[in-house]
Amino acid sequence: MSNPVNRYTYRDYLQWDDGERWELINGVPYNMSPAPSRIHQKVLGEIFGEFRDYLKDKSCEVYLAPFDVRFPSNDQADDTDNVVQPDISIICDPDKLDDKGCNGNPDLIVEVLSPSTAKHDRLRKFELYEENGVQEYWIVDISNETVEVLSLNHGQYERENVYGNEDEITTNLFDSFSLDLGTVFT
């Protein structure tokens, strides 16, 4: 991975076949290894399953990492320097989906924090998702058994609520969806 200006694009990213997961934010590569913990995967699977079941007969689609989300610059998807693999991505515009993943902003993203990615998810990805118009961003903290729900309002995230393991989460995007955190964190 050598680049004379130390800025990488999606075109570079596609050439990296080292068995590791990478993300690019503003042209800077971030290694997403090591593999997530068993608890991370269990919580992620519970949330994904609830969304998958809810969206089964609806127009939105839900995807589980690894799934590339590209935030194109100047409508040039291969030249973008922002490509991430959110834990869960929900996309309601089918025109954003292609064989490589999502080209544009998902409507809702869920990130389950790991010790190695917590800062990355809370700072870099937060800013990237906010700048690119992701309507809702859920940050799942498995160590504290909480989910922070952030909603985009006039281009900036506002905290809707922080939910604990005794709560049910709803979303502004789907009228009848609710998620019982008691089942997620057990």
From TrEMBL:
<keyword id="KW-0378">Hydrolase</keyword>
<protein>
    <submittedName>
        <fullName>Uma2 family endonuclease</fullName>
    </submittedName>
</protein>
<keyword id="KW-0540">Nuclease</keyword>
<dbReference type="GO" id="GO:0004519">
    <property type="term" value="F:endonuclease activity"/>
</dbReference>
<keyword id="KW-0255">Endonuclease</keyword>
<dbReference type="InterPro" id="IPR011335">
    <property type="entry name" value="Restrct_endonuc-II-like"/>
</dbReference>
<dbReference type="Pfam" id="PF05685">
    <property type="entry name" value="Uma2"/>
</dbReference>
<dbReference type="InterPro" id="IPR012296">
    <property type="entry name" value="Nuclease_put_TT1808"/>
</dbReference>
<dbReference type="InterPro" id="IPR008538">
    <property type="entry name" value="Uma2"/>
</dbReference>
<feature type="domain" description="Putative restriction endonuclease">
    <location>
        <begin position="12"/>
        <end position="181"/>
    </location>
</feature>
